[in-house]
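User: structure tokens for this one?
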Amino acid sequence: MSEHYYTENPTSESRPAEAVFSYRGHELQLTTDSGVFSRGELDAGTRILLAALPEALPGSILDLGCGWGPVGISVGLENPDSDITFSDINLRALELAKKNAEKYGIRGTFIHSDGFAEIEGSFDAIITNPPIRAGKQTIYQMFADSAERLTPGGALYLVIRKQQGAPSAQKYLAALFPKVEILDKSGGYWVFRCVKEADK
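Assistant:
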């Protein structure tokens, strides 16, 4: 039976591997594993997403589908006063994210959840490299739920490859958010910033 990185409880044999990368002056070495997205390296999409994020992301932040934690940890190092929540359906990934965050002193909240099923409250920013292989219906539901769970004026940041549906995703996001902008187009990836309407 083949497993995807969004498998809840991977049965593949554990084969830890280190992913080494730098982010805005922070040198990181994070533990990854088999059965988890992007074993042994920071994938191109996440790298481009991180580079496009604003330097200041204050308040409450959700790393949705956190994997082994590169986004939440990087953002947490840049924004030490922010409240970071890590969530993933993959239990192995979530445990890795927790250990990696502890290594760098990131005191986050870690939630085992399929999408927003177990996540409570609202967030000033939601950041995700969505699980494209889970299918359009799944990721579009994540986008719709994100729109509901952002604070007024809050923003969803996400990355999608052009050939995996970025143009059609842009149209769908525009139906959910009053402001959708493309922060970057690099290496075939599009990074979106989708802003929820602020209170009047």
